[in-house]
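Input/output pair, single chain:
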Amino acid sequence: MGTTNFKSNLMALQDNLLNFAYMLTSNRDDAYDLLQDTTLKVLDNQDKYAENTNFKGWVFTIMRNIFINNYRHNARVATMVDTTENLYHLNVSQDSGLVAPEGSYTAREITDAINSFADEYRIPFSMHVAGYKYDEIAKKMGLPLGTIKSRIFFARKQLQKRFADYR
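Output:
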């Protein structure tokens, strides 16, 4: 692929890449940064692109790898190692962020709220919270994927409405 064709193919993917970056980061500014990093890395590694491979897949893989590497780096940087004598920082009580105990709600209250839902909302929401993916829930319940997504959405909205006074 010639240099001009390579760059034009890369430019044609910018909108798709931005959408993918936004999906990964959930932040507009971070998505633009990821898009810029990916574009630069693709241009720097143009000579490593093999002619008969999927260009779009190659570029998206680069973006995904940059995102993963940045995530791992940020996780390492955020880790604090206590090197003080007697592990002073580890023994200091941590602020929970709650002003008072009555400012939070218990797992029992949340469970009771979920159990009060009609089965059509409670079952898919409980499965989702347990870690099932939308398509797995749809298959198990024999319902369309869109129905499952909307029921989980409405269950979530009901919980938000019920616990709105805790904010």
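DSSP finds nine helices and no strands in the chain. The CA atoms of residues 28 and 47 lie 30 Å apart.
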